[in-house]
Amino acid sequence: MKVVQYFKDSFVEFKDHVTWPSFSDLQRDTIIVAIATVLLAIFLYAVDTLFTQVLNFIYGAF
């Protein structure tokens, strides 16, 4: 069956040909992504607050 062979080939590919990161690399990359996410959230909050203030100034408080 082609499906069974596909899964066998996929397993071999993951086991033998994929270079997995070390645990320390994984930790470092996770910390980088977490910090970037927090910084992006702070930036979006600031932009949203600024736009809210500008629109309230232009159109008056709702």
TrEMBL record:
<comment type="similarity">
    <text>Belongs to the SecE/SEC61-gamma family.</text>
</comment>
<keyword id="KW-0813">Transport</keyword>
<comment type="function">
    <text>Essential subunit of the Sec protein translocation channel SecYEG. Clamps together the 2 halves of SecY. May contact the channel plug during translocation.</text>
</comment>
<dbReference type="GO" id="GO:0005886">
    <property type="term" value="C:plasma membrane"/>
</dbReference>
<keyword id="KW-0812">Transmembrane</keyword>
<dbReference type="InterPro" id="IPR038379">
    <property type="entry name" value="SecE_sf"/>
</dbReference>
<keyword id="KW-0472">Membrane</keyword>
<dbReference type="Pfam" id="PF00584">
    <property type="entry name" value="SecE"/>
</dbReference>
<dbReference type="GO" id="GO:0065002">
    <property type="term" value="P:intracellular protein transmembrane transport"/>
</dbReference>
<feature type="transmembrane region" description="Helical">
    <location>
        <begin position="31"/>
        <end position="59"/>
    </location>
</feature>
<comment type="subunit">
    <text>Component of the Sec protein translocase complex. Heterotrimer consisting of SecY, SecE and SecG subunits. The heterotrimers can form oligomers, although 1 heterotrimer is thought to be able to translocate proteins. Interacts with the ribosome. Interacts with SecDF, and other proteins may be involved. Interacts with SecA.</text>
</comment>
<protein>
    <recommendedName>
        <fullName>Protein translocase subunit SecE</fullName>
    </recommendedName>
</protein>
<keyword id="KW-0653">Protein transport</keyword>
<dbReference type="InterPro" id="IPR001901">
    <property type="entry name" value="Translocase_SecE/Sec61-g"/>
</dbReference>
<keyword id="KW-0811">Translocation</keyword>
<dbReference type="GO" id="GO:0006605">
    <property type="term" value="P:protein targeting"/>
</dbReference>
<keyword id="KW-1133">Transmembrane helix</keyword>
<dbReference type="GO" id="GO:0009306">
    <property type="term" value="P:protein secretion"/>
</dbReference>
<dbReference type="GO" id="GO:0043952">
    <property type="term" value="P:protein transport by the Sec complex"/>
</dbReference>
<keyword id="KW-1003">Cell membrane</keyword>
<dbReference type="GO" id="GO:0008320">
    <property type="term" value="F:protein transmembrane transporter activity"/>
</dbReference>
<dbReference type="InterPro" id="IPR005807">
    <property type="entry name" value="SecE_bac"/>
</dbReference>
